[in-house]
Design goal:
- The complex is a heterodimer of chains A (about 425) and B (about 350).
- Chain A contains 13 helices and 14 strands.
- Chain A is an alpha/beta fold and about 425 residues long.
- In chain A, strands 1, 2, 3, 4, 5, 6, 7, 8 and 9 form a 9-stranded mixed β-sheet that branches. In chain A, strands 10, 11, 12, 13 and 14 form a 5-stranded mixed β-sheet that branches.
- In chain A, a hairpin with a 7-residue loop joins β12 and β13.
- Chain A is globular and about 100 Å long.
- Chain A starts with a helix and ends with a helix.
- Chain B contains 14 helices and no strands.
- The longest helix of chain B is centred in the first third of the chain and has 33 residues.
- The chains are: A alpha/beta (about 425), B mainly alpha (about 350).
Chain lengths: ~425, ~350
């Protein structure tokens, strides 16, 4: 009996400590929040920039406040994301862990390079990097972007990226650019992938209405220098162009796999053209896309978008709410403006890009029985560029907010 | 021990649905997707219906011959020696699939959760625990499965709910994936992904009345079948047809991807616990049933001491393949392909012989 007990104790001693093989103390790890990737001077090498969160900042345990910065930023030249973390350990004191990475930032220079897919593939292979990580293309070098990005109030980097990306995708200014989506679209080899476009260096101020900017061009004063606006367009894993915020919004409206909630934008005032009317756009339903596939002649793509609008501000003070005729003209103006812009975007994608950023290839698939036939029909070279596309916007209701009518300017100044 | 079994229908359902249903969360889907692309979720449907006649046939025979388990049935119909020889062949198949499967599970645990621990250590601990579980006997296995069943299924349902928003239904088109001919062939060749429903027949006499066992097996296999189809459907719709081929462990990829709202990210460890629990149970059941088959062939009434050598042997065989990819994509696939015709034809052979001997008339 005693022998048996000793034997059992020995077994337990052998078995249980083996669980400690993979132990990692929280104290001994550095959590990377953002990874920046740039081309290095040497060919086939890349500069990896890691933004490592400092857990002490902003936590309740350090109410006295520390003087340490909220994050540490290091740059290392290396082959792939994971190998470089080990080199970085020469001067980062803890084990670098990528489990909590929120974003991968890629410089536009690298994104336009044909080797871009290699770097990203290597990153996706690492079990630590999740499919939910967002891909961001920065106009400048990713290293500079991370260094210059100094959020004013949300100083903790993970919180910052979480909230800003959430906000820009909800309002449609930037697309949802998860790594998962990137790989599904790139490997599917039919559509264009859109990635969030950002910049921390203000460039020449752009002109146009409230959303017709690219990151860096927004005229603004104060706040964080970083701007997230518009999208980088990827074809077959290589960046080919950028879309401004307005075009990105249209793509988000037309792509049923994107979640767009609502946003406020302006349309030309149909009665007094020098003013613009502010409209809150909201969309409860995904757009309806029906594709009639014709083998020998151009296919027909019909898209119907049901949306709701709410008049937010009428600077011209025209009485839209109670004059049915004016109302009709306003509705027509909204719809025709949307349709015109959409058609322009579609034409650009058909002629310039050769394929669509709307992920519409999903809807032609049901016309084929197997992948071979589908790939032979060739969405991005034959079907889409030659298709006849009709987009119809359908205004379901028009609300006027909480005011029945605006004060007439003449009455006030009387 | 065998003759005074006391399991109930619900325990058989739990055992079978854990034993077979675990296939939704290992690397079987990526094995199937290699050739059939996004049509791979249809393969188990085809396989199930290809295997169904044979399965019903053997259930019919078991009912006719009363109170005999699978091996005893084979001996009764085919004669002692031929029956034993076929039984031994069956045992070899099952044992090989245990070894390869266990390696596969160990690799998943290692790659995803314990990257720094040596494979051998994980293997020994994994099978070691399965051994201790199996040692407790079929009743305990049955109760444990029944208790664990709701918990495990709840976690699976949670995964389903959380991934629901990421599903894009249109991805199932083109409906036949890489082609209907390939799907049919795959369905036939991989029919043995449902081999578990045959393996469990060795425990035919483990319930009080065999009627309960039959009900349990029918219910359990239908449940596991639906569950597998549902999850393969999710994999097809979450991953596109070119991507699904590249994903080695779709279930874990999904648990890494989902988040509980915006604040609770990286929640895969919660699911890992339930997954591990299910995996242990699966191997406890597997190990126990295999030893039972061996015991039945060699007429060893007290077969439980054999659990230890078999556990050890399965570790040794499981450690042989160089890496998990060659294990999964080559060895396991080959095993499936050899086992499928065996499982399809065995019941037919038994039935023909029994019919010609005139034993079915009474």
């Amino acid at each position: 009996m005693r022998k048996k007990n000793i034997f059992l104790i020995c077994i337990f001693i052998m078995v249980f400590p083996s669980g400690c093989n993979d132990r990692q103390e929280l104290e001994q790890q550095s959590y990377v929040v953002a990874i920046g990737v740039d081309k290095a001077e040497e060919e086939d090498k890349y500069d990896f920039t890691y933004q490592i969160a400092n857990p002490e900042v902003g936590s309740s345990s350090s109410q006295g406040g520390t003087n340490e910065p909220p994050s540490e930023i290091v740059t290392i030249t290396g082959n792939d994301v994971l190998t470089a973390t080990y080199t970085a350990n020469a001067f980062v004191s803890k084990k670098i862990t990528l489990d909590h990475t929120k974003v991968i930032i890629v410089s536009e220079e690298l994104a336009r390079d044909e080797n871009f897919l290699r770097v990203l593939q290597a990153a996706a292979r690492t079990p630590q990097i999740r499919r939910g990580v967002e891909l961001i293309v920065s106009k400048e070098k990713a290293r500079e972007f991370i260094q210059l990005n100094k959020p004013v109030t949300e100083t903790r980097p993970h919180k910052y990226f979480l909230s800003i990306l959430n906000r820009v995708t909800r309002s449609g200014l930037s697309p949802n650019s998860e790594l998962h989506r990137f790989f599904q679209i790139t490997e599917g080899d039919a559509d264009l992938f859109l990635s969030t476009y950002a910049s921390a260096i203000p460039s020449e101020e752009g002109e146009g209405n409230e959303d017709e900017y690219l990151a860096g061009q927004i005229p603004k004063l104060g706040g964080s220098p970083t701007q997230f606006m518009g999208a980088a367009v990827f074809k077959e894993g290589i960046m080919i162009d950028t879309l401004n915020g307005h075009e990105t919004r249209l793509v988000n409206i037309l792509d049923p796999t994107m979640d767009i909630e609502n946003f406020i934008t302006t349309f030309k005032d149909p009665i007094e053209p020098k003013f613009r009317v502010s409209i809150g756009y909201s969309q409860d339903k995904d757009p309806n896309i029906s594709i009639t596939y014709n083998k020998d002649k151009p296919s027909l793509i019909e898209v119907t978008v049901d949306f709701k609008a709410e008049v937010i501000a009428i600077p011209s003070l025209v009485d839209y709410s109670q004059n049915p005729d004016y109302q009709k003209r306003l509705i027509n103006q909204i719809i025709s403006e949307l349709e015109e812009q959409t058609n322009k975007l579609i034409e650009k994608s058909q002629k310039e890009y050769g394929t669509d950023p709307f992920y519409w290839s999903l809807f032609v698939r049901k016309h084929f029985l197997d992948v071979k036939a589908y790939e032979k029909a060739d969405w991005n070279k034959v079907i889409y560029p030659n298709a006849k596309i009709k987009v119809r916007y359908n205004l379901q209701n028009l609300e006027f907010g909480k005011m029945l009518n605006d004060t007439s300017l003449e009455e006030v100044r009387d | 021990m065998l003759n005074n079994g006391s399991l109930k229908t619900r325990e058989i359902v739990a055992i079978l649905s854990l034993f077979l249903g675990m296939k939704l969360a290992d690397s079987t889907p990526s094995l199937l997707a290699q050739k059939s692309q996004n049509g791979f979720w249809l393969v188990p449907i085809l396989s199930f219906f290809i295997l169904l006649p044979s399965f019903l046939l053997i259930m019919y025979l078991l009912k006719k011959y009363k109170d005999k388990n699978l091996i005893e049935l084979m001996e009764a119909i085919l004669g002692k020696w031929f029956g034993k020889a076929l039984g031994l062949l069956f045992f070899t198949f099952v044992f090989l699939s245990l070894s390869l499967d266990s390696r596969n599970y160990v690799e998943q645990i290692k790659i995803l959760y314990f990257p720094e621990s040596p494979t051998k250590v994980i293997f020994f601990i994994f099978i070691g625990i399965a051994f201790f579980g199996a040692k407790k006997g079929i009743e305990v296995i049955g109760y444990t499965s029944w208790i664990a069943f709701p918990l495990i299924k709840f976690s699976v349902t949670l995964v389903f709910l959380l991934i629901f928003g990421k599903i894009i239904i249109q991805r199932i088109f083109p409906i036949f994936g890489s082609g209907i001919d390939i799907l049919m062939l795959e369905g036939l060749q991989k029919a043995s992904i449902f081999s578990e429903i045959f393996i469990i027949l060795i425990a035919y006499t483990a319930t009080k009345e065999t009627k309960k066992f039959r009900h349990g097996v029918y219910l359990g296999s239908i449940f596991a079948f639906l569950e597998i189809i549902l999850f393969y459907f999710i994999y097809t719709t979450v991953f596109d047809y070119n991507s699904i081929q590249k994903v080695a462990f779709p279930f874990h990829d999904i648990t890494q991807y989902i988040q509980f709202g915006e604040f609770f990210t990286n929640i895969e460890t919660i699911f890992m616990v339930f997954w591990l629990f299910a995996a242990y149970l699966r191997f406890i059941i597997f190990l126990y049933l295999i030893t039972m088959i061996f015991g039945a062939i060699f007429e060893i009434k007290k077969f439980e001491p054999l659990l230890l050598p078999f556990s050890f042997l399965s570790i040794m065989i499981g450690l042989l393949p160089l890496n998990s990819i060659s294990n999964e994509l080559f060895l396991r696939e080959t095993l499936f392909m050899i086992m499928s015709p065996f499982l399809i034809l065995l019941p037919v052979l038994l039935w023909i012989v029994a019919l010609s001997k005139g034993e079915l008339r009474s």
